[in-house]
Amino acid sequence: MTRDEVLRIRNDFPVLHQLVNGHPLNYLDSGATSQNPISVMEAEQEYYEQRNAAVHRGAHTLAFAATEVFEAARATVASFVGAPENSIVWTSNATEGVNLVSYSFSNASLGLGAPASARFRLGAGDEIVVTEMEHHSNLIPWQQLALRTGATLRFIPVLDDGTLDLSAAAQILNPRTRLLAVTHASNVVGTINPIAELVQLAHAVDALVFLDACQSVPHLAIDLTALDVDFAVFSGHKMLGPTGIGVLYGKAELLADMPPFLTGGSMITTVDMQTAEFLAPPQRFEAGTQRISQALALASAVDYLDHTGMGRIRAREAELGRRLVEGVTAIPGVRLLGPGVGVERIGLAAVDVAGVHAHDVGQFLDEAGIAVRVGHHCAQPLHRRLGVTASTRASTYLYTTDDEVDQFLAVLAEVAPFFGVSR
Amino acid sequence: MTSSAMQQLYQQIILDHAKSAHGAVPELPALDAGSVSAAGLRQAQSHQVNTTCGDEVTVRVGLAGAGPDAEIDEFAWRGAGCSISMASASVLNDTVRGTSVAESEAMLDLFREMLRSRGTIEPDEEVLGDAAAFAGVSKYPARVKCAMLPWVAFEAALLQLR
User: Fold this and answer.
1) Residue A331: how many CB atoms within 10 A of its CB?
2) Are A330 and A421 in contact (CB under 8 A)?
3) DSSP H or E segment with residue A335
4) Was domain A3-30+309-418 assigned CATH 3.90.1150.10?
5) Which of A356, A357, A418 sits opposite B2 (nearest CB)?
6) Does A359 reach chain B within 8 Å, measured CB to CB?
7) Counting CB atoms within 10 angstroms of each CB, which of A118, A322, B55, B100 has the fewest?
8) B contact test, residue of A26, A357, A392, A393 with most B CBs within 10 A
9) What's the pLDDT score for residue B133?
């Protein structure tokens, strides 16, 4: 991606063109939430101006039109991640997707659902495996599931260099393992985990694999079918889409046997006063009025990404990631969390500035118009493992310029001197 | 490029306190309710966390006597966090150690009022001492919590001894 192309892309993102504290906004927090191109905002507006109606109910023309675009959005997102349409469930966000599966499993453990749902029952003696680098979203729902069912939660440790201990993984995954929940790309160390290898290990012991794809789907070309994971979640707002929409992918044959999580309208076939029959997936998992405009807007975001080309975005972000890593490791007293140059990463780097707390680093950067994430980035166990309580994270996207990375690096280098940290 | 805004927020007093914190101890084991120290002081402590950034502070107080005139004869804290919260704990130590409960609560009210003022209150340095250096923080709503954290822990510990 040439400099001119990046500048052209930036023209599609109005929010980027503003001053913050007297400096041009340097938005390096796309790992937390990305910005929206005009086309995405227009898609949402166009829906409300021309097609707004309840989907999957009502027989009037507008309702039919709304249902059609809603389902077309599902098809767009499904094809973007290499998945069949009936394996894509809309959720409010990725976190809800994790909860959906974990509560569906606990409902199965209570004996709810069709007889076939018995395959998801968990109890004492069963093991759920996560990793030490998970975002809290892909950790706490599994902790809670273990607590509700009596299953044991185990984890694959992280090595000193911030990568997963794969030899330990081979030991930890065993015939008692029912599920492995793992992130595709780390939101802290930025590395891309060897999912194919982990899937092989997990499937060899008949465990299901649940992939947190929040940091990968926006940045890499993903084929979930080829990856052979059983479930995956990602969120719209990290991939140029709006907030309030997330995606759960589940293999169709698994979703078909799972009891619902949220229940109510629009997910049933016949209802009497004591019982109800449920629709097939994905509707079984989409109770209540859906996030229609958000789904359309997410599809529009996917079109934008597709048009730009995920291969080119991945290459561009690898470039930005390298620039970040080379830059931060050249600053005395700045420690990069995770592996250094030579390991492919998404365009993201978290650092610890010796003697200066992340919150102070973030404040100093903000004064120069630079927006970064500070804190534990919803990954306390990983920070603890790496020997820090908090870090400062810069994360890029397709609209990030080299100059922005360089400005970040220049201001980061001034942090320690300002706070009087001597070396 | 260091702006004057940064220097106003991070006054030298704050940076100094953050670097050599007064009253900080490496360990503060949990206390049983109704604990009394070897010196006969009624003790309580409180642990507070800033969920935004993970900063944490534990404050222990030991009172001689009871009621508003009871004297704060023991004060210790431990914590991990940003320079604002750590400096604030250090200043809190200097401010309340040896004062009466009534006096420290009055200081607490002043400090909180100043921090919530969004920069509109000119602090009285005569009264607040080093705590007045935190006036700049009040212009940064996201940081007010950092400065308040140890004071909130102190308040919660005192409340237990009511």
Assistant:
1) 18
2) no
3) strand A334-336
4) yes
5) A418
6) yes
7) A118
8) A357
9) 93
Task: Name the nearest CA neighbour of B76 among B88, B90, B64, B86.
Answer: B90
What ipTM was predicted for this assembly? Answer: 0.85
Q: Which fold has domain A43-306?
A: Aspartate Aminotransferase; domain 2 (3.40.640)
Q: Tell which of B4, B8, B10, B57 to mutate to test the A interface (max A CBs under 10 Å).
A: B10
- The residue behind tokens 């892909």 is A138
List, for residues A349-393, the tens digit of each pLDDT value.
999 999 999 999 999 999 999 999 998 899 999 999 999 988 999
Q: What is the pLDDT of residue A422?
A: 56
Choose among B53, B80, B140: nearest Cβ to A374. Answer: B53
Write out the catalytic residue numbers of A: 378
Residue with token string 């940091």: A215
- What tokens were used for B15? 């940076």
pLDDT in tens, A252-309: 999 999 999 999 999 999 999 999 999 999 999 999 999 999 999 999 999 999 999 9
Q: Is A375 on the interface with B (CB under 8 A)?
A: yes
Helix/strand/coil for B108? helix
- The candidate with the shortest Cα–Cα distance to A294, out of A79, A77, A133, A109, is A77
Q: A357–B143: do the CB atoms touch at under 8 Å?
A: no
Q: What backbone phi and psi angles, to 5 degrees, belong to B45?
A: -145, 160
Mean pLDDT by 10 residues, chain B (162 residues): 79 91 92 89 95 87 94 95 95 96 95 92 88 92 93 96 89
Q: In this structure, what CATH number is given to the domain that contains residue B135?
A: 3.90.1010.10
Residue B8 contacts A where some CB pair is shorter than 8 Å: no
pLDDT of A82-130, one tens digit each?
Answer: 999 999 999 999 999 999 999 999 999 999 999 999 999 999 999 999 9
Rounded distance, CA A230 to CA A211, Å? 8
Query: Which residue from A248, A216, A293, A276 is spatially nearest to A101, judged by alpha carbons?
Result: A248
3-class DSSP state of A145 = helix
What is the distance between the alpha carbons of residues A222 and A421, in angstroms, rounded to a whole number? 43
Domain coordinates in residue numbering, chain A: 3-30+309-418, 43-306
Residues on chain A touching B17 (C-beta within 8 angstroms): none
The reply to whether residue B5 touches residue A21, judged by beta carbons under 8 angstroms, is yes
Residue A135: alpha-carbon gap to chain centroid? 9
The answer to whether A384 contacts chain B (CB < 8 Å) is no
- From the DSSP assignment, how many helices (H) and strands (E) are in chain A? 14, 17
CB-based contact (8 Å) between B141 and chain A?
no
Q: Give the per-residue pLDDT at A423.
A: 45
Residue B1: list chain A partners with CB under 8 A. Answer: 368, 411, 414
Secondary structure of residue A318 in the 3-state scheme:
helix
Q: How many domains would you assign to chain B?
A: 1
Q: Which domain holds residue B13?
A: 4-160
Q: Tally C-beta pairs within 8 A across A and B.
A: 52
Residue among A405, A257, A255, A388 nearest A320 (CA):
A405
Interchain contact A419–B (C-beta under 8 A): yes
Nearest residue on chain B to A359, alpha-carbon basis:
B82
